[in-house]
Design goal:
It is built from 16 helices and 15 strands. It has about 450 residues and is of the alpha/beta class. In the C-terminal section; belongs to the class-I pyridoxal-phosphate-dependent aminotransferase family.
Length: about 450
Amino acid sequence: MKNDSSGASLAEALRVEIRALRPGARLPSSRALMERHRVSPVTVTRAIGQLAAEGLVVTRPGSGAFVAERPRPRADPPDFGWQAVALGDRTVDASTVRELVSPVPDGMIRLSGGYLHASLQPSRALATAMGRAARRPDAWEAPPPAGLAGLRTWFARATGPDLTPDDVTVTGGGQQSLATVLRALLPPGSPLLVESPTYPGVLALARMIGLQPVPVPVDTDGLRPDLLAEAFGVTGARAVYCQPTLHNPTGAVMPSQRRERVLAVARAAGAFVVEDDYARHFVAEPVPPPLVTADTEGRVVHIASLTKVTAPSVRIAGVIARGPVAERIRSAQLVTDFFPARPLQEAVLELVGAPGWTRHLAAVRTALTARRDALLTAVARELGAAPRRPSGGLHAWVPLPAGTDDRAVAEAAARAGVRVSAGRPYFPAEADGPYARLSWGAAASEAEIAEGVRRLAGVLP
């Protein structure tokens, strides 16, 4: 058996044994456990450590491991009623975000979420880089508040030729970047213009910190400048959130001319543009450069995350901003989060600087292109639908038959063994119709994608 699986098996066997023993009883020695279960000393140590962390055993150096005292059951359940009064009527709705990041049960096909399947992640390279980073003499010291100089340099060069390391703040991933940036830009109660539909994580976040999301419709080219100007005029908003490249969920790519118009509208309104460039590494066809590269006034705050193109726990991103807003963002992160862990920054810097990085990007693009085509083919065959063909990315925005309850469809699909995302949570206000967002990046294979779409078709009216 492999160390991980044998360690889990040994821990489970010992849990069963512990339930039959009295507190204070001594567990078999490490040597006895090794012989009985045919495992290594490292596996025994890991299993005992896990049980100690769970409070099931206590270890005494030189004596062994003993069954811990069991907590006495409470006579009455605790009364948390007072909290309802203290907390008031403010809620935090994380239901959509939770669905996007939660693992699926065994046997369920995942056509939702925004992370790569494990087979597409650079796991070996990450493990090597993390091991080296952890062994550096200063690995556990505090990094510079704005991030490691080399990592800031990499983000600047990867984004545009006129950007400098001083423009970059290294943050703890895209979602944390959004929280820091929005808090820095807008006080509670402010309107925030957002695309409609848009990334539901920004809607949940904005509402949690007291902002008011205001919808601005998109078309096949992304955010509509005419309605953006109208929304600025009506609300007096001072910021707009948008995803010009491979918009989530529609997959739209904003053409260069429209990007210029969006910047012009923001300039006329005296407002910031928060550019979420989450999918730049997933483009399969040429796309215009980021908005921030055409901005000469510090109007664009650019967020570039490395999480989606690597692995879910690589919570590293770069926020690019210029002028006083850069210092405010940097200060906001320092006050709320201090800084991302130095070993993770060191590991990411080694990863993106290695020759294998470009090979990883190329392999991911190739795999995602094949999976995109497999999903669109299956959607046409099984659903009779023809959604937009995105020029990369991770998602397709699939219209459902008129009158369909997309949330009920998503629930029925889960019961049929496939997880999809209902379209309704992507709209900040009323939806313009029923949709499902289908993702191809998290599925195990093209065959699995086809089977997932077949299962979805089976629950549609």
